């Protein structure tokens, strides 16, 4: 037996979006617009920053495994604490789910080009990873239901989806759910929930609980806390109890937990962030379409553009980088002709559109 299992040897590691410093160094540009990782262009919630400072007094003590945040979330969403888990980002919880529920012979089912973080985590477990194509850049829930077999253990759905930004409705989900056996766990990844929640077509999964569904949410996006790693999940208490057995006991960190609790109370920051995003989304969608690009309508904090081929996508990504704008080429997700662009500040969004309009990649 080799030291490294073949499914790890062949795994492509998670490729994060480019960092600002790296682009500054490589291209000698001072001002860089980071529109590649769906972060909050306003920074972090000020209340969270205050709480982080206060939490520094107790850094010598072990944290309590997210208990305080679980309590606050249970109260806010009118649940029992046993229905809530907190972790190092929603990806921390996803990793926990994969370790807790998957056995060697199980299979994972999701859409093609799903969120790269999930792809890497699931494939690292060495189980069979099956996908179904998109239908017009939306989940094809009917095809997913049809693809369930006796080995399917986990179905991963992101709503809104990354990288397409599209959503499915409660009706669509309910139709799908009728075909899902109880022994299958559905991960409902709602990392972009806050951006979509006012859309009447968007289902708030807190209003319909199913015993085999775990909802994941994060503080990384609208609360601007991607750097501290804090996320949470809701599920039936039996699922949570088993996840808690496997979870790293001191995850999340005390700093992350304090930041999350404070961020939840920061209505003003939430409001400003959502307003800026709604404006940015509308502007980018319209301006990029006016530039002749195919833009997938989005309910999140980014848009996906579809180019004629991978050459144009690579060239455009490179030209934007040279002008100090980081976007996310989607080859690593499995969509080599697509690029994902996060909403930025109003200035960032305008810079991006101006740069796109100058691009040779789109003229040739
Ligand atoms: C769909 C989706 N889920 C989860 C995450 C990761 O969130 P976290 O920072 O909470 O791990 C992201 C981040 O980009 C995402 O797009």
Care to describe what's here?
The chain is α/β, with parallel strands linked by helices and 364 residues long. It folds into 2 domains: 6-43 and 268-363, Aspartate Aminotransferase, domain 1 (Alpha-Beta Complex), CATH 3.90.1150; 46-266, 3-Layer(aba) Sandwich (Aspartate Aminotransferase, domain 2). Helices cover 40% and strands 15% of the residues. The protein contains 15 helices and 13 strands. The protein has helices at 6-9, 20-27, 46-55, 67-76, 89-101, 116-123, 141-147, 170-177, 193-196, 237-246, 254-264, 267-290, 310-322, 346-358, 360-363, and strands at residues 33-34, 84-87, 107-111, 128-132, 152-158, 185-189, 213-218, 231-234, 294-296, 302-306, 325-326, 328-329, 338-342. A 7-stranded mixed sheet has the order 2-8-7-6-5-3-4, sandwiched between helices. It has a 4-stranded antiparallel sheet with strand order 9-10-13-12. A two-stranded parallel ribbon has the order 1-11. Strand 6 (185-189), helix 9 and strand 7 (213-218) form a beta-alpha-beta unit. Helix 4 (67-76) packs parallel to helix 11 and helix 7 (141-147) packs parallel to helix 8. The protein is globular and about 55 Å long. The model has no long low-confidence stretch (mean pLDDT 95). The site of pyridoxal-5'-phosphate (PLP) has 14 residues, from helix 5. Pyridoxal-5'-phosphate is lined by residues 38, 89-91, 115, 117, 158, 162, 189, 191, 218, 220, 226, 231.
